[in-house]
Design goal:
2 domains, single chain, mainly alpha, about 120 residues
Length: about 120
């Protein structure tokens, strides 16, 4: 996955913002699978790939939302409630600033951000 991401930067592929989005989604799905398999190294590598791909996203999107939500889930897994709460507040604020029309189904992400906040 990292190779694909690096290639998109190197050759300036048209619509290359789609590649980081796909990597974020794919890494997020793999992350969810690894979460319960007790594979901490593989999970850490997958999180790093997702984070690297997120850095290449240029606009607020469902991919960025999903990545931030997964970060909050990891904080909750570590029982770091203060950091999870702060991150959830920031995520909700970002969603509200972008508004429901930022991308298709953004309103669902706003609702989920409220759920993450508690």
């Amino acid at each position: 996955m990292v190779d694909i991401l690096n290639e998109s930067k190197k050759y300036s592929i048209p619509h290359c913002n789609k590649i980081p989005k796909r990597v974020v989604y794919l890494a997020g799905n793999i992350e969810q699978l690894l979460e319960y398999l007790n594979r901490p190294q593989a999970l850490a590598q997958t999180i790093a790939v997702r984070e690297q791909a997120k850095q290449n996203l240029t606009d607020w999107s469902n991919a960025q939302f999903q990545s931030e939500a997964q970060n909050i889930e990891r904080l909750l897994d570590k029982e770091n409630l203060p950091a999870a709460y702060t991150a959830a507040q920031k995520l909700l604020q970002r969603c509200l600033e972008a508004c429901e029309k930022a991308y298709q189904d953004a309103n669902y992400d706003i609702a989920f951000a409220h759920i993450l906040l508690g």
